[in-house]
Amino acid sequence: MPVARAQHEIDSREFSDWCAFLRMEDDPDDVRLARFGMVQARLAGHKRVTADMFMPRKLRSGSDQQTAKAIKARVMCWAKAHNQKLKQAEKRKNKRRRRGD
Question: How far, in Å, are 51, 65, 72 from residue 69 at the CA level?
């Protein structure tokens, strides 16, 4: 996607987050995705989230490998909270638009 199109479709904060995410070239994919999950959770208002919470158990010290079911449950929980925040923001945006008309 061209930069101009991306800047048109997303705000500068999200664009900066993606740029920072893409600069993490040296990290293995699991670490990169764990950090991405942490950043997204923190942006959604969850301040006590760590990257380790999104790491596969095989990469955590002294842990067994995390099951696909556990990973799915964790991602679905995060996605539900994230989508709920998006819906609330959209409602506030629509409410402001109606008041302005």
Answer: 19, 12, 5
- Which residues are CB-neighbours of 51 under 8 A, at least 6 positions away? 31, 34, 35, 37, 38
Domain count within the chain: 1
The Cβ of residue 42 has, within 10 Å, a number of other Cβ atoms equal to 13
Q: What is the pTM of this model?
A: 0.36
Distances (CA, A) of 14 to 55, 70, 92: 23, 28, 19
For 34, other C-beta atoms within 10 Å of its C-beta total 20
How confident is the model at residue 1, as a pLDDT?
Answer: 67
Q: Rounded to an integer, what distance in angstroms lies between the CA atom of residue 46 and that of residue 39?
A: 9
Domain span at residue 26 reads 3-100
